[in-house]
Automatic annotation (TrEMBL):
Lineage: Eukaryota, Metazoa, Chordata, Craniata, Vertebrata
InterPro entries hit by this protein: Amino_oxidase, FAD/NAD-bd_sf, Flavin_monoamine_oxidase
Residues covered by region (Disordered): 325-360
Protein name as annotated: Spermine oxidase
Amine oxidase domain residues: 34-322, 364-554
Origin superkingdom: Eukaryota
UniProt GO BP: spermine catabolic process
Organism: Suricata suricatta (Meerkat)
Basic and acidic residues compositional bias, start-end: 328-345
Keywords on record: FAD, Flavoprotein
């Protein structure tokens, strides 16, 4: 376990001198998603009174986005609480009555579900043929058996052979193909259908075919966090405990929202095979929040005074090594007198007077946070919770001085991609009551390798549509998924074009030319959002959980502070 505390009263530690004299450090949290809100809430509960949260967008919540349409709430971002045993989000939701709105059917299976556990997934080909149920079940069993094998390389230290290219997608595709081709009992027509299904399964977000929906827990590192779910992958909001107000943690803490969701990669071929089993499942049932996942955000924000959170406040640059180098130029001079958390004349929490910004020459602020509106906020500590997508795009200009080489390398090695949802609402269902999903299988992709489509064929990456359940809550709504570069192409299209293409696909695969266009469409656009630049991160080939640890190690690496690297 790495130690984050200073070595105490060492006189050569420039980061602690000002704190010992002032007593109360100023902490700035960048980002008001679940990570930022949870960090701010924890700081306030531990007695920190000078805390500011800077949020670039106009609302809190990050990649939680609940949209109310009629009587139903639809989630464009985080949707699931995956696992209940020891999951603080589950306990928070349960304690506040967010899981009580259930139907009789949901109570019978002990979960609040977005998709029916009953019924049948309809696998349809682009020629309008339905794949027989027994063929689907046989293939699903085979695929899941191979999928479980991908976990063993990390968990049991199995060597990765060169043929797999250390890729989950390459290994899975070739292993499943070889087993299908070697099966003496299947006729050639059945083998062709199963070979085509491989590509459909590799498109599905963590797959509806019983993929392990997981989050990262490394007990040996004694990390703690808040686990939430967006789409069908998992995210871990990770931050380490800070010492109390009298402690001396390092000035800059990088806690980018790094998750494990291999579905968000452009291709499963990009996902590291050797690191795949590093992510483990939180045990217990899976739940959604009928009233909207935003309720969790609101609960987290309840204990945070309104003046702490500043909305519409994008950050341009974090000047994080001010103890050794004062920035030059008038544009990064600290703001004037007074506590920037409060309006003029307003007192701090608990009736305390706000602390002034005046410091002696040898008490320079360790960090200056330069905002896009040219305001500069001085701080003792900064916690950065922006997404990995933002870091990849902006890290060269976002930090001054630049980040150490090992952090830059970790940013490059880890992957992040886009998973988008497409909701289609119909006047009446054209699917039967037994159908819980419509899955698209392209027969001409049976022998294809990694799937990359030209922009005009982006729709081929849509793996299928799930029927939202129960209908009395959602109406007649299908929920589709699209991942990778093709999702970014979809985001550039207008609603009318996406609705038209989705309708044509449904007509083609069902063989029903009379399916009407949906009366309403709702979709996400996480990849093109400048404050996220993606949905989930994942362990790309060449990366591992150790890269998350490298990003989380606080800066600067002061010799007198016991900041050992990850073990």
């Amino acid at each position: 376990m790495q130690s984050c505390e200073s070595s105490g009263d060492s006189a050569d530690d420039p980061l602690s001198r000002g704190l010992r004299r002032r007593g109360q450090p100023r902490v700035v949290v960048i980002g008001a998603g679940l990570a930022g809100l949870a960090a701010a809430k924890a700081l306030l509960e531990q007695g920190f009174t000078d805390v500011t949260v800077l949020e670039a967008s106009s609302c809190i919540g990050g990649r939680v986005q609940s949209v109310k349409l009629g009587h139903a709430t639809f989630e464009l971002g985080a949707t699931w609480i995956h696992g209940s045993h020891g999951n603080p989000i589950y306990h928070l939701a349960e304690a506040n009555g967010l899981l009580e709105e259930t139907t009789d059917g949901e109570r019978s299976v002990g979960r609040i579900s977005l998709y029916s556990k009953n019924g049948v997934a309809c696998y349809l080909t682009n020629h309008g043929r339905r794949i027989p149920k027994d063929v689907v079940e046989e293939f699903s069993d085979l695929y899941n058996e191979v999928y479980n094998m991908t976990q063993e390389f990390f968990r049991h230290g199995k060597p990765v052979n060169a043929e797999s290219q250390n890729s989950v997608g390459v290994f899975t595709r070739e292993e499943v193909r070889n087993r299908i081709r070697d099966d003496p009992d299947d006729p050639e027509a059945t083998k062709c259908l199963k070979l085509a299904m491989i590509q459909q399964y590799l498109k599905v977000p963590l797959s509806s075919q019983n993929f392990v929906e997981c989050t990262w827990q490394r007990e040996e590192d004694r990390l703690w966090g808040i686990w939430v779910q967006g789409g069908r992958g998992c995210s871990e909001v990770l931050f380490r405990p800070l010492p109390g107000p009298g402690g001396h943690p390092a000035p800059l803490w990088l806690f980018p929202q790094v998750e494990s969701c291999e579905s968000s990669s452009h291709s499963m071929d990009d996902v590291s095979l050797s690191a795949f089993g590093e992510w483990t499942e939180i045990p217990g049932a899976h739940h959604i929040i009928p009233s909207g996942f935003m309720r969790v955000v609101e609960l987290l924000a309840e204990g945070i005074p309104a003046h702490v959170i500043q909305l519409g406040k994008p950050v341009r640059c974090v000047h994080w090594d001010q103890a050794s180098a004062r920035p030059r130029g008038p544009e990064i001079e600290p703001r004037g007198e007074g506590d920037h958390n409060h309006d003029a004349g307003e007192g701090g929490q608990g009736g305390e007077e706000p602390l002034g910004d005046e410091r002696d020459e040898d008490e320079r602020w360790p960090v200056l946070v330069e905002c896009e509106d040219c305001e500069v906020i001085p701080a003792d500590h900064v916690i950065v919770t922006v997404s990995l997508g933002v870091l990849k795009r902006q890290y060269p200009s976002f930090f001054r001085p630049g980040l150490p080489a090992e952090k830059v390398a970790a940013i490059h090695r880890l992957g992040i991609g886009t998973t988008d949802k497409i909701f289609l609402e119909f006047e009446e269902p054209f699917w039967g009551p037994e159908c819980n999903s419509i899955q698209f299988v392209w027969e001409d992709e049976a022998e294809s390798g990694p799937l990359t489509y030209s922009p005009e064929l982006w729709y081929r990456k849509i793996c299928g549509f799930d029927v939202l359940y129960p209908p009395e809550r959602y109406g007649h709504v299908l929920s589709g998924w699209i991942c990778g570069e093709e999702a970014l192409v979809m985001e550039k299209c207008d609603d009318e074009a996406v609705a038209e293409i989705c309708t044509e696909m449904l007509r083609q695969f069902t063989g029903n030319p009379n399916i009407p266009k949906p009366r309403r469409i709702l979709r996400s656009a996480w990849g093109s959002n400048p404050y996220f630049r993606g949905s989930y991160s994942y362990t790309r080939v060449g990366s591992s959980g150790a890269d998350v640890e490298k990003l989380a190690t606080p800066l600067p690496y002061a010799e007198s502070s016991k900041l050992a690297g990850p073990r």
